[in-house]
Amino acid sequence: MKESGRKHGALSPCAACKLLRRRCAEDCVFAPYFPPDEPHKFASVHKVFGASNVNKMLQELPEHQRRDAVSSMVYEANARVRDPVYGCVGAISSLQQQIHSLQTQLAAAQAEVVHMRMRQFSSSSNAGGAMDMAVDQANMGESLWSC
Amino acid sequence: MKESGRKHGALSPCAACKLLRRRCAEDCVFAPYFPPDEPHKFASVHKVFGASNVNKMLQELPEHQRRDAVSSMVYEANARVRDPVYGCVGAISSLQQQIHSLQTQLAAAQAEVVHMRMRQFSSSSNAGGAMDMAVDQANMGESLWSC
């Protein structure tokens, strides 16, 4: 979808041009992504990346990728404004810790499943006929190796 | 730890001042974090955030937080250079997907543990004396609720 169209008419400059106090041209690179009713979006990316860098980064991308690029830059800029030391790298670090914790819990749960299967198997071998039903119910080998 | 000290002597400008072709002053804000032998670090943050923004962000932080801030900015800038559309937000999205997948696997493994405990309990009730040993081995209630 071509995104160079202006939604807000020639009389209403985009949020970027308004902040930069410049004329908002018909082909303004910011206008499709920074509407005048969302001034905070441009304010954040301007503070963190600078208008000139945002302009350059958008110009270097094909139009169909610019909306995603703006969204990710706004996300990154907001994270940096909230946390000037770690920005969104703080979120990455916290997600990595969460993954590590989940992997540990998953390994423990899977080990417990294996352990219980082994015990069930061993109990059924010892108990003989009385245990057949239990082993059958447990459906050995079907879900054990699917973990 | 005070980090204003220069490691590379007055004759060797830091990587930032070298790239910006300016005199590297004794109290240069970039010098402690952008040594001349790592020029790519400053090149990335300069391309993505702009030297003036990096300078401003560092000045707004106490000295003991600046090294972490530089590391996170270098990480973020490298991610944006590698992936100009999503930058490190791409990594966040991928980590979130990984967490979702691990949570699903963990829920399945924990459900299997609960299910096996229930079957074990039910089998032991049906099989009577012959099953006592198995129930005892399974150590009901100890690890089931710790998942």
UniProtKB/TrEMBL annotation, chains A, B:
PROSITE patterns: LOB. Residues 12-113 form the LOB domain. Belongs to the LOB domain-containing protein family. This is LOB domain-containing protein. It comes from Salix dunnii.
